[in-house]
Specification:
The complex is a heterodimer of chains A (about 200) and B (about 200).
Chain A: H1 2-14, H2 18-27, E1 29-33, E2 38-40, E3 48-54, E4 57-63, E5 66-73, E6 78-79, H3 82-87, E7 94-97, E8 101-107, H4 108-117, H5 122-144, H6 149-159, H7 169-176, H8 180-192
Antiparallel strand pairs in A: 1-8, 2-7, 3-6, 3-8, 4-5, 4-7
Helix pairs in contact in A: 1-2
Chain B: H1 3-12, H2 16-25, E1 27-31, E2 36-38, E3 46-52, E4 55-60, E5 64-70, E6 75-77, H3 79-84, E7 91-94, E8 98-104, H4 105-114, H5 116-142, H6 146-156, H7 160-163, H8 166-173, H9 177-189
Antiparallel strand pairs in B: 1-8, 2-7, 3-6, 3-8, 4-5, 4-7
Helix pairs in contact in B: 4-5, 5-6, 8-9
The chains are: A alpha+beta (about 200), B alpha+beta (about 200).
């Protein structure tokens, strides 16, 4: 049942047919991950592509004591470390489960083999990549547009209307570069005005 | 082999014959300095490769921010237009007079069915694009100090200084041109960067 919803969401996000999505996921492993566990670890090589089946994960970059949340992925959404996946280099990011999760995983080789065997699946891989490009770019806009804290939060809500209210505040504040206390105040005020959930 | 083909093959791990095939089916258009090739807010469903000249990716928010410098042999497109037929979130502007290869995305996709090599090129371009964006993101996150950020940027793009005007490098770093000029002067005095004219 849950898997069906994952496939439907995957199809919608990556313009894939249900049959093709099933064909891919049939070859993938299903891994269970506990809340706070790492799926991809910064500075290690992990060339797998993942799709979230249950729960939510975040991409995070650690620099010294400082950490920045880069993106969130939820049911039906694919994620990977692009550097490891594309070039087998050490991962530039960590991916952490922010709730108990189950994720589908496939190594780069498994994906390449599948693409050679079934060339009609190739376009799905392209669509996943295109969405990853958009995901990486979106993060920078929130910073680049020189928005104030309230504007940043509203931009994020608009960007991820389906999940913004489900993500623990500490991760949203790390994503937006706003102190948790300030974000809590902003959110309270916007909720009161009925602007956000 | 022409320079842009060599750069394209190296950057995207493409065979020379495949690159030549690609450029034989793309059309070429000339742009003047400051022309907008992709306009933020418009739907752009074309893919491009720079043949000659330089362009920059630029985001117009409360102020303008240069996101990337695109050199000969490098591909670009509006990710939103290409995959979702949505409005572009950045502009791409010619910063010198340019010749640019272009092709409609739909045509590219149709031809990819017939010529699988076009699929592979697209895949490699996208992969490289994600890796490059990630590298830039890392610079912004790991180096809050502008001097460090500038030095890291130079490591990533050693020729950037020679290729583009200082104002674009400054806009890339999110600082005023005067501030970058001062930073460069200090670094030259300390012999951390060579004293090349700009």
């Amino acid at each position: 049942m849950d898997e069906n919803i994952t496939v439907e969401l995957f199809c919608k996000r990556y313009s894939a047919s249900y049959e093709h999505a099933l064909q891919i996921l049939k070859y993938a492993k299903l891994e269970k991950i506990k809340k706070n566990d790492f799926i991809i670890k910064q500075d290690t090589i992990n060339d797998k592509m993942y799709v979230v089946n249950e729960g939510m994960v975040r991409g995070v970059r650690y620099a010294g004591v400082h950490e920045t949340t880069l993106w969130f992925a939820t049911k039906g959404q694919a994620f990977c470390c692009p550097k490891s996946f594309a070039k087998r280099e050490k991962a530039a990011i960590t991916v952490q489960a922010i709730s108990d999760c189950s994720v589908y995983s496939m190594s780069r080789k498994e994906i390449d083999d599948l693409n050679s065997k079934y060339p009609n699946l190739k376009h799905i891989c392209l669509n996943v990549f295109k969405e990853l490009v958009i995901g990486v770019t979106n993060f920078r806009f929130i910073i680049l547009d020189h928005l104030n804290s309230t504007e940043r939060y509203l931009a994020f809500c608009k960007l991820r209307p389906e999940i913004y209210y489900k993500i623990p505040l500490k991760y949203v504040s790390s994503y937006l570069g706003i102190a948790q206390q300030s974000l809590s105040r902003i959110r309270k005020s916007l909720k009161k005005q009925g602007v956000v959930q | 082999m022409e320079n842009f083909i060599h750069s394209f093959c190296k950057k995207y791990t493409v065979k020379e014959e495949d690159a030549k095939f690609l450029f034989s089916i793309m059309k070429v258009k000339k742009f003047h300095k400051k022309d907008m090739i992709i306009k933020q807010g418009d739907v752009c469903n074309q893919v491009f490769v720079v043949k000659e000249g330089l362009t920059r990716g630029v985001r117009f928010g409360k102020q303008e921010s240069t996101i990337c410098i695109i050199v000969p042999g490098q591909a670009f497109y509006s990710a939103e237009g290409f995959s979702r037929k949505e409005k572009a979130t950045i502009s791409v502007q010619a910063i010198t007079d340019c010749s640019i290869f272009y092709m409609d995305c739909d045509e590219y996709n149709e031809l990819s069915e017939k010529y699988p090599v076009l699929y592979n090129i697209n895949l490699n371009v996208l992969e490289e694009c994600i890796v490059e964006l990630t590298n830039l993101q890392v610079i912004f996150m790991d180096f809050p100090n502008t001097t460090d950020r500038y030095l890291e940027l130079m490591k990533l793009y050693p020729d950037l200084d020679k290729q583009v005007q200082l104002k674009y490098v400054a806009s890339f770093l999110g600082i005023a041109t005067q501030s970058l000029s001062r930073i460069r002067k200090e670094l030259k005095a300390k012999k951390i960067i060579p004293a090349i004219a700009h």
